[in-house]
Amino acid sequence: MAGKRAIFSWCLYDWANSAYPTVVTTFVFGAYFTTAVAETPESGAEAWGYAVGFAGLMVALFSPVLGAIADQGGRRKPWLAVLTLACVATTTLLWYTRPDSADIMWALVFVMLSSIAFEFGLVFYNAMLPDLAGPDRVGRVSGWGWALGYAGGLACLVIALFGFVKAETPLFGIPTEDAGHVRAVMLLAAAWFALFALPLFLFAPDRPSTGHGAARAVREGLATLRATIRDIRKYDSILRFLVARMFYADGLVTLFAVGGIYAAGTFGMDFGEVVQFGIALNLMAGLGALAFAWVDDWLGAKPVIVVSLIALIGLGAAAIVVESKTAFWIIGMALGVFVGPSQSASRSMMARLAPENLRTEMFGLYALSGRATSFMGPIAFGFATGLFDSQRAGMATILVFLVGGLLLLIPVQEPRH
């Protein structure tokens, strides 16, 4: 197990990288692109969906390959450093996206590249967890990282909103012409990621190099991946877990993707209220990840995931039937408490299940399980909403994914620890 400074530095990377999904893909740049850059909000949403979907496809296809190659080389930090720099650089280049339809392709290209670099980086970052934490602290360290991640994303978002987007006088005298104060948020996210990621590279230990050259690492990595896929039945518990996660992760992705739409359409929340609800939901998810971190090490990751999914199913059903906005707020905050543990415990369970010599490869497959079917939840939501002319019916499809994931998870055997 690594020392406290190394573990804190690893957790701080979660604080650093959360600025990207929070600011770029969720709250600020995505909205800016669809409303100010694209010719119409509808065409912008369509183009954005294709771009993000293509990035997800690339991550699903190549994450296991990169992980297998990295396992043969031994070291993970060089890979993570290159991918972090790539994400920082491509996020910085989004600054040049003017509120002009001529910049549509520029924006989409660099959103795709930054998203791919971000997701690839997580494969190597997550694979460092078991070596740093040790078998008896994997759950706590994973939970601490997730909690810091939620906090970091929210802190960066608050600075972005009140220091730039909504400020009468944006920080550093950034002009508002050509949406300069909005575009500057991309520079903030890039600088935030670069600055707070630095301690990991300075203080967190890495696995030693195997001494294999690049060509040999690629050749043996691909051979190992082929062998893993061919003999996948040898890893029955891992396969069952990844399939289960594929289902409940779809439910969680859809919840975050359409939760704001549901809050606005069903309960009449305006944009400001939706943002406040999103911030509060993320805050409760971070607190939940922190609170359940020690339970993960005490009872195991699987009980934490099972309890979280049961709570999410029950609270999700309540959120569908309530009529009061106040009741929806209360249920939403309670629901948020169990989102964080389901995510952090999933990472620690993968860390416990993965064979030591295949950890990065297995976290590549973990990334695949989170991406391969991520389109199914939003499509099911849209189909049910249109079929029944009701967003409540659309939200009910999320429960189907959560229940399916729960039922598939129950037979999975978690290693004793």
List the helices and strands and how they pair.
Layout: H1 4-17, H2 19-27, H3 29-37, H4 41-73, H5 77-93, H6 104-127, H7 129-133, H8 138-165, H9 180-203, H10 214-230, H11 236-267, H12 271-299, H13 301-321, H14 325-353, H15 359-371, H16 376-388, H17 391-409
Please provide a written account of the structure.
The chain is mainly α and 417 residues long. The protein has 2 domains: 216 residues, Growth Hormone, Chain: A (Up-down Bundle); 184 residues, Growth Hormone, Chain: A, CATH 1.20.1250.20. The chain contains 17 helices and no strands. The model has no long low-confidence stretch (mean pLDDT 84).
CATH topology of the largest domain: Growth Hormone, Chain: A
The global form is globular
What's the structural domain tally?
2
CATH superfamily of the largest domain: MFS general substrate transporter like domains
Please report the total strand number as a whole number: 0
Calculate the terminal CA-CA distance, rounded to whole Å. Answer: 15 Å
Q: Could you report the average pLDDT, rounded to the nearest whole number?
A: 84
Q: Which structural class matches the secondary elements? A: mainly alpha
Q: What fraction of residues sit in β-strands?
A: under 5%
